[in-house]
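step=encode ok
step=design start
structure_in=
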């Protein structure tokens, strides 16, 4: 299914798309900022480098021990400053009036939990902090997932996270669910963080604890993204973050990795290939376990077999660049996804390949994938146009009209999807449903092919065209 927003009537869309068009005001009527605030580079740089919520959020960190002995960090948003708390009350009162007495986010008896996944190079951007801030004001539990070695998360094993390796996220999602078992669980990825989110959805299928997901400015085709030239200012910034993380543990990685060559790379592709592909190694090294511990107090010899079992085919580097993407393409298991995924993209995104390269057949054939493609927005920008509040007889900008359109659209989308799925469960047959609190199925062996679902021919004049048939939104839970 391919859902282009805004869209005029007359399209033939599946049930969820139709429901979203009727109930998601932010999706149907986006009011994006015009130039100069709408300049793609200005929006992109502001979302990555500057923001008004930098010092108003407070987090508490959990370090989660993984099966292979590694550690990821989970930052729980625990509060804002006093002045922001006052603003939160004003927001909740306004949204309660606008949505018929139900504030966004409060669509269950307990607050929903929101997992945020940063860019692949790690860290909290102002864009992500703004989304965290807005979600807290709307009643969400918010937790930020930091992969191993990023955002100050300590490294305890010589294993870096590959672009599409979702195993760590899978364990983190299970942990968050255990913390709030009665909450609806949703997730949002930022930019290249979509690599592990989409991989997770494909690998877990109907066993996922997530109810709905969204990806803002996602990288849908990983190999193409790494092979497409990025403007120098953005490439330099991303490489700087990646190299900074590696250099922090450079001496520990030298026995298993050509650190000097990686630090001298001038492109993201060369850096990624040097880290994870055996064909890119500068020189042959003496055979040793790639899972050796970074902690000299641990015995790598005794722990290597169990760690290798936990990592599976990722215990060894990929043979070459192409084989690396056979196991890391975000959409390699797209036909197994059983959770609605909203992808918000912009035609003027300076960090991603041209919009013409988007995998539109996936959105046209798979009812779980929805695409919102705007003409402007930059990369994770999507600034709202500012409107003067004339009704109150003063000059200024209404609080609701400021900020990021994609944030407001995503949080509203979660509420609408939850309402839609409730209606489907209430109206459909009651049999065959599994409790959300049951255990997840074990991870499946990863497959090399991508988007194997047959793609029907779609008329060019329609941007949304799919037949509902006998499709049901209830999960089958067959695995």
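sequence_out=
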């Amino acid at each position: 299914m391919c859902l282009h927003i805004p869209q005029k009537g007359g399209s033939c869309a599946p049930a969820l798309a139709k429901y979203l068009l009727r109930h998601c005001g932010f999706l149907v009527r986006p009011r994006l900022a015009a130039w100069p605030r709408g300049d793609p580079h200005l929006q992109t740089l502001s979302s990555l480098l500057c923001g008004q919520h930098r010092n108003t959020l407070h987090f508490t960190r959990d370090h989660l021990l993984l099966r292979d002995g590694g550690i990821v960090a989970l930052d729980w948003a625990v509060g804002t400053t006093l002045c922001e708390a006052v603003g939160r009350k004003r927001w909740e009162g306004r949204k309660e009036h606008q949505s018929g007495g139900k504030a966004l986010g409060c669509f269950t008896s307990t607050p929903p939990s929101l997992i945020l996944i940063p860019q692949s190079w790690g860290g909290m951007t102002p864009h992500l902090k703004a989304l965290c801030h807005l979600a807290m004001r709307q009643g969400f539990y918010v937790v930020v997932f930091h992969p191993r070695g990023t955002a100050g998360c300590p490294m305890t094993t010589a294993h870096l996270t590959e672009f599409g390796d979702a195993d760590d996220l899978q364990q983190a999602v299970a942990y968050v669910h255990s913390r709030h078992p009665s909450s609806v669980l949703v997730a949002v990825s930022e930019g290249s963080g979509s690599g592990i989110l989409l991989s997770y959805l494909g690998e877990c299928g109907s066993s996922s604890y997530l109810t709905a997901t969204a990806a803002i400015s996602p990288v849908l085709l990983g190999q193409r993204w790494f092979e497409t030239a990025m403007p120098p200012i953005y490439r330099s910034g991303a490489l700087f973050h990646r190299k900074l993380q590696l250099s922090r543990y450079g001496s520990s990685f030298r026995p298993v990795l050509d650190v000097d060559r990686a630090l001298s790379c001038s492109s993201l592709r060369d850096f990624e290939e040097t880290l994870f592909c055996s064909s890119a190694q500068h020189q042959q090294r003496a055979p040793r376990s790639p899972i050796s511990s970074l902690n000299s107090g641990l015995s790598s010899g005794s722990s290597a077999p169990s760690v290798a079992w936990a990592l599976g085919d990722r215990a060894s580097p990929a043979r070459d660049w192409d084989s690396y993407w056979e196991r890391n393409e975000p959409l390699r298991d797209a036909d197994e996804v059983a959770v609605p995924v909203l992808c918000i993209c912009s035609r003027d995104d300076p960090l991603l390949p041209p919009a013409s390269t988007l995998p539109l057949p996936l959105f046209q054939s798979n009812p779980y994938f929805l695409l919102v493609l705007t003409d402007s927005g930059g990369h994770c920008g999507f600034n709202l146009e500012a409107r003067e509040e004339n009704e109150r007889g003063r000059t200024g900008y209404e609080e609701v009209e400021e900020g990021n359109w994609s944030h407001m659209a995503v949080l509203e989308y979660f509420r609408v999807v939850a309402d839609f799925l409730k209606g489907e469960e209430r109206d459909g047959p009651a049999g065959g449903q599994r409790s959300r609190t049951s255990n997840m199925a074990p991870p499946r062996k990863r497959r090399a092919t991508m988007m194997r679902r047959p793609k029907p021919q779609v008329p060019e004049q329609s941007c949304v065209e799919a037949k509902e048939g006998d499709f049901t939104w209830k999960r089958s839970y067959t695995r």
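step=design ok
step=annotate ok -> The radius of gyration is 22 Å.
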